[in-house]
Amino acid sequence: MSDLCQAGLPGRDGQGAFSRMTSTEILEESGTAGLLVAALLNRYLVSLDDEELDDAWAAELFTPDAVVAFPPMSRHEGTEGMAGFHRKALSSFAATQHLGSPAVVVLDGDRAALRANLISTHVHHPRHVPPQGVLAPLFTTGTFVDGEALRTPVGWRLALLSFRLLWANGTPPPLT
């Protein structure tokens, strides 16, 4: 995670910049740019469940060298192959729904750190649930999302998204 992201986000000790700012200060600092950065995360999450993920999708959301990380499971760097990385992960499920909290955004010039909570529901393919399989129909997770965005000549783009699993209910799909 970048220095900006680490400095702007509270850790387990609650000592990050967000913990020292009031809600009013965060809103005043963020303004329109903060809304644009938060909208990037919202568009990303909504698109996972109901859109065609292709190179145009990746270019509209990410910087060319962006990193998306699900430690310790997987990581992808760069917009090249980003859509395929996501399509492959999502193909493990019959359907998904990603519900994100409003993102808290802290700006620093042309850079921004963001933090949100995420509840994800993953519906297993019929072959994995009774009577064909043994898994419960749903696999749900609660996750912290930390990220960084950069203002580019074409607008704000995500440079980093890192997902930290807090809890899970159910069983992930079998490895293929």
Structure overview:
31% of the residues lie in helices and 38% in strands. It has one domain: Roll (Nuclear Transport Factor 2, Chain: A). By secondary structure, the protein is an alpha+beta fold. Strands 1, 2, 3, 4, 5, 6 and 7 form a seven-stranded mixed β-sheet that branches. Mean pLDDT is 88; it is low at 7-14. The chain has helices spanning 3-8, 17-20, 23-50, 55-61, 82-90, and strands at residues 62-70, 74-77, 95-100, 104-108, 111-123, 138-152, 155-169.
**How far apart are the termini?**
30 Å
Please report the total strand number as a whole number: 7
Largest sheet: number of strands, sense, barrel closure: 7 strands, mixed
Count helical runs.
5
- Under CATH at level 1, the class stands as Alpha Beta
Portion of residues in beta strands equals 35-45%
Q: From the 3D structure, determine the CATH topology.
A: Nuclear Transport Factor 2, Chain: A
Report Rg.
17 Å
Helix coverage percent of residues? 25-40%
**Unreliable residue stretches:** 7-14
What is the averaged pLDDT score? 88
